[in-house]
Every structure is written in C-alpha cells, then in structure tokens.
Amino acid sequence: MQQSFRIRKFNPNDLQIVMRINRMCLPENYSDMFFMDLYQRFPETYIVAEEEGKISGYIMCRIEVGLSNFGFGGLLKKGHVVSIAVLPQGRRKGVAQALMDKAIEGMLHYNAKQCYLEVRATNQPGIALYKKLGFDISRINHGYYSDGEDAYIMSKKISN
Ligand code: ACO
Ligand code: ZN
C-alpha cells in the first residue's frame, strides 16, 4: 500500500504541535525547554510524521553513555527513546514503526550501539510495537511511574 505519511526531522516550528500531541497521548509531559534541549543536543533522533501537511506523531530521544543492557561490553553509547506518540486517528498505519526506524538511523549516526526505552507494563500497543521491532524486556523497574505503575525496560542492539 502507498504510504500516506511523510517522515522528516523535527524543527522548532513544530514545538507547539508536538507538545500538544504529547499531552493528548501520554501522561508524561514536559516543559518546552525540555523538548528544545533534546532537539538542540540530538537533532538526528528527533523526528516527526506528517500526514496531509499536519504532524501526526513524533519521537524524541537522548544519547547516553552507560552499561550494556545485554550484560557484556562495559560502557557504551545507548539511544534512549524518551517519548513517542501518534495521534489516535493516525494509528495502525506504520507511523510509529517508521518514526522508530528513522530515530534508530539517527542513533547510529551518533555511534550508539543499543537502543532502549521505558514502557508502562500495561501499555499493550507500545509493547507490541517494540516487540515487532525486535526489542526484548531487559528488566522491570517497579513503581517507575509517578502513579506507581511498573515500567518495562525494553532494549535492542542496533549495531554489530
Ligand atoms: N494493538 C496491538 N499491536 C499494536 C497496536 C495495538 N493497538 N499498535 C501497534 N501495534 C504493533 C503492531 O504489531 C503493529 O503492526 P501491525 O499494524 O502491522 O499489526 C506495529 O506495532 C506497528 O504499529 P504502528 O502502526 O507503527 O504504530 P502506531 O503508529 O499506531 O503507534 C503507538 C503506536 C505509538 C504505541 C500509539 O499507539 C500511541 O501513540 N500510543 C499512545 C502513546 C504511547 O503509548 N506511546 C509509547 C509510550 S512508551 C515511550 O514513549 C518510550
Ligand atoms: Zn525514559
């Protein structure tokens, strides 16, 4: 099927709509400075999807140095998906998958070797998306969210 959306890098003109999508889709919200700081530091992994000229989804990430999520390797660079969301009317068209693919491409640009994220243990669409993309559950962070819900830490190797 012909793809009905376009994937491109975030630019500062997108800030208000991206913040709105974040507030509509997730209980974890952030200040405009937080969004802009991620853009300024990691523009290659800050991506939006556009459908009929309107933004329908975003992904924003951070590159971190830390221990391998797979037990070996010492310190390495990891791409951390801080937030991803797609508006309800834009879902199940492959938008999130395309956003993740593009963000992982950006992580490789920053020389990250692994990608990881936190997801609510009850977030079935999210968990299904990450499993389809080859992520596995590395561990459980009990009471991670402010309402007490557990997070799954899901990880994937992104280079050899
Ligand atoms: N039920 C089951 N599987 C699903 C679902 C669902 N509702 N949504 C996605 N998937 C899986 C499927 O395997 C799907 O492939 P398929 O459609 O061929 O079966 C695959 O993921 C890819 O789906 P996409 O169409 O790319 O996903 P979509 O664009 O609909 O976005 C997302 C998925 C981002 C989870 C969306 O539902 C959303 O915005 N939810 C609210 C916000 C949210 O939960 N964000 C993630 C929080 S965790 C974090 O930010 C790190
Ligand atoms: Zn996180």
Report what the structure shows:
Strands 1-2-3-4-5-7-6 form a seven-stranded mixed β-sheet, sandwiched between helices. It has a single domain, classed as Gcn5-related N-acetyltransferase (GNAT) (Aminopeptidase), CATH 3.40.630.30. The mean pLDDT is 96. Strand 4 (75-86), helix 3 (95-109) and strand 5 (114-120) form a beta-alpha-beta unit. It contains four helices and seven strands. By secondary structure, it is of the alpha+beta class. It is globular and about 45 Å long. The chain has helices spanning 15-25, 32-41, 95-109, 124-132, and strands spanning 6-9, 47-51, 54-67, 75-86, 114-120, 136-141, 151-157. The structure holds acetyl coenzyme *A and zinc ion. The site of acetyl coenzyme *A has 24 residues, from strand 4, helix 3, strand 5 and helix 4.
Question: Can I get a quick summary?
Answer:
The protein has 160 residues and is an alpha+beta fold.
Please outline the helices and strands.
Blueprint: E1 6-9, H1 15-25, H2 32-41, E2 47-51, E3 54-67, E4 75-86, H3 95-109, E5 114-120, H4 124-132, E6 136-141, E7 151-157
The structure holds acetyl coenzyme *A (ACO) and zinc ion.
Query: What would the CATH topology be?
Result: Aminopeptidase
CATH class equals Alpha Beta
- What sequence of helices (H) and strands (E) makes up the elements? EHHEEEHEHEE
Estimate the global geometry from the Cα principal axes: globular
Number of domains: 1
Largest sheet: 7 strands, mixed
Main-sheet strand order equals: 1-2-3-4-5-7-6
